[in-house]
Design goal:
- The protein is of the alpha/beta class.
- It folds into 2 domains: about 1-150, Response regulator (Rossmann fold); about 185-325, Reverse transcriptase/Diguanylate cyclase domain (Alpha-Beta Plaits, 2-Layer Sandwich).
- Helix content is about 55%, strand content about 15%.
- The protein has 11 helices and 9 strands.
- It has helices spanning about 1-15, 30-45, 55-65, 80-90, 110-115, 130-175, 185-200, 215-225, 225-240, 265-285, 310-325, and strands at about 25-30, 50, 70-75, 100-105, 120-125, 205-215, 250, 255-260, 295-300.
- It has a 5-stranded parallel β-sheet, with helices on both faces.
- Helix 4 (about 80-90) links the parallel strand 3 (about 70-75) and strand 4 (about 100-105).
- The radius of gyration is 40 Å and the shape is rod-shaped.
- Bound molecules: magnesium ion.
- Magnesium ion binds near residues 30, 31, 73, 75 and 76.
């Protein structure tokens, strides 16, 4: 015992305590003398060390509290170091813990086998304290760096996802009317150009609807902008319900909405427009609060095969028809 204490003291004197090391190391060796020596070297240098005299105990200890590094003897009765290592590497929790094998066997095939098992290093007995410390230090800092990198990558993935969500939100914001959530003028016009040129190219029917809420200024002046905003939202919802998925619909001005109905003739569009007009009127009749009552006038223009039309022309014609609807009493279709 006195001998052991002397040895420990010698080791302590040889390696002054370093402050940085605080890693939690599991030392596995069936030889009590080796175990004591390794513990003395490492704990003197600030490492927290847990001894395990057998493979079984090593595994139990590793799973109960994950060590930062494992020094693992190969030659042990019952369960040898290779088997312990295999079990550690097979488990998701313990597979990334660096394992350094310690063995008296200096055969090249044993070293190869150790690395194949997933060990990070191999130390041959009899070992030098300097070597143990140097390798333990190296692998602990490597493993810490790797963990930091992995965390960094995880964070980066999370922030990339967040960025994507934000950019998608901005894309939607660029296309949407902020109040009603339907397409804004810019996006509606862009899509309308595309749809119209397709209809022209294939000589398909397409119809434009220009819609305007009647006396909207009066509503705003009398009941306030909040009531006006609510009306705009209600009308947008009623229109969205009336149109089909492939129809384009957007708010293109203050109280002005437009729709472009592909594959729709003038007569079919009149039916849809009448439904919109009627639904707006019905909704108003059902509304108890008077400030939410309103009607809508609609102008319709259609692409005919006889005259080639641009979006500007189509819109101008619908606008003229809307003007007619307004001047002939409103709440109607022209
Ligand atoms: Mg042994």
């Amino acid at each position: 015992m006195a001998n052991q204490e002397e040895t420990n003291q010698e080791i302590k004197d040889q390696f002054p305590k370093s402050i940085e090391n605080s890693g939690n190391i599991l030392v596995v060796d069936d030889n009590p003398q080796n175990l004591r020596l390794l513990i003395a070297i490492l704990s003197r240098h600030g490492y927290k060390v847990r001894p395990a005299p057998s493979g079984e105990i090593a595994l139990k200890s590793a799973f109960s509290t994950l060590p930062e590094l494992i020094l693992l003897d190969i030659m042990m009765p019952e369960m040898d170091g290779y088997e312990v290592c295999q079990k550690l590497k097979d488990n998701e929790l313990t597979k990334s813990i660096p394992v350094i094998f310690i063995s008296a066997i200096d055969a090249i095939q044993d070293k190869v086998k150790a690395f194949e098992m997933g060990a990070v290093d191999y130390i041959t007995k009899p070992f030098q304290a300097e070597e143990i410390l140097a390798r333990v230090n190296t692998h602990i800092s490597l493993s810490r760096t790797q963990k930091m990198l992995e965390e960094e990558i995880k964070l980066r993935i999370v922030s990339e996802k967040a960025l994507k969500t934000i950019s998608l939100k901005y894309q939607n914001m660029a296309m949407q009317d902020y109040l009603t959530g339907v397409s804004n003028r810019r996006y509606f016009m862009k899509r309308a150009e595309e749809e119209l040129s397709r209809a022209v190219r294939y000589n398909h029917p397409i119809t434009f609807l220009m819609m305007d809420i009647d006396h909207f200024k009066n509503i705003n002046d009398t009941y306030g902008h909040q009531a006006g905003d609510q009306i705009l939202k209600n009308v947008a919802t009623i229109c969205m319900d009336a149109f089909r998925v492939n129809d384009l619909f957007g708010r293109i001005g203050g109280e002005e909405f437009a729709a472009l109905l592909p594959e729709t003739t003038f007569d079919d569009a009149k039916i849809v427009a009448e439904r919109v007009r009627q639904n707006v009127e019905d909704f108003s009749l059902k509304t108890e609060g008077k400030q939410l009552a309103c009607t809508i006038s609609i102008g319709i223009s259609s692409l005919t095969d006889k005259n080639y039309q641009t979006l500007d022309l189509l819109m101008k014609q619908a606008d003229d028809a809307l003007y007619l609807a307004k001047s002939s009493g409103r709440n109607c279709i022209r």
